[in-house]
Design goal:
It contains 11 helices and 2 strands. It is mostly helical.
Amino acid sequence: MNVHKTKKNLSNYHPVSAVILSLVVVLILPIIVAVLLGVTYSLLGTSGTDSAFEIWMKQNPVEVSILSDEKTIISPVESAISYLLTVPLQIWFIFWLLRRRKIDLNKNLGLYHFDRNALIYSLVAWLIFYLVISVYGYAFQITPPEEFIKLMRATPFILNFLMVVIGAPILEELLFRGFLFSQLKTTKLGINGSIVLTSLIWTSIHFQYDLLLLIPLFFFGLLLGYLMHKYNSLYLVIIVHAVHNLQATLFTEFLYDYFY
């Protein structure tokens, strides 16, 4: 039994390597796609003239200042399409990381179905969480980041839906509650420590938000980590994440002006 357990642990990535690889998925692969898009623009353009594809991609640019006081021109369509092109590459890379170590995908990623009671319990837990953070937001008079809202509303709704409600939950849960959590939970961190660390790293990549918004996001990550551990179903946490993002997307698109 001890020999078998040792071999099993050796198939996993070192915790530091797992964290670094997760950051590569989040930070490096999008840069690769951006470079490929730039090459595509150059190949399609003629005599210094932008191609119809590039013109379409860069339509309706908006001026925002998300990370600093300096204004940056962002093309909402280009940003959305770039993200949607990156997601399949990121998902493939995660599966490749696991396959190259011959790690059981179903077992480590939690690719298992869930029953109706698990879904009901999870959605009720999310609803309670949502009500609590709503009270938190009201008490501290927290408003959504205007620059981020501006960018979201300048993006066609269908692209926002594909990015925020479908792409982000699948990728982020596969990466953090799937790959990273599976690589950390057998270490000295244990289950609880792994849930906290994965939530902390996941929260840190949402650098477009202010600190007061990152706090509830961190606790949402803890909830997702707990549900992943309790039910061992990546599909379930993807759904909960998607529901959360759906309400945020609908609020931004249709209700934001009534409240702010």
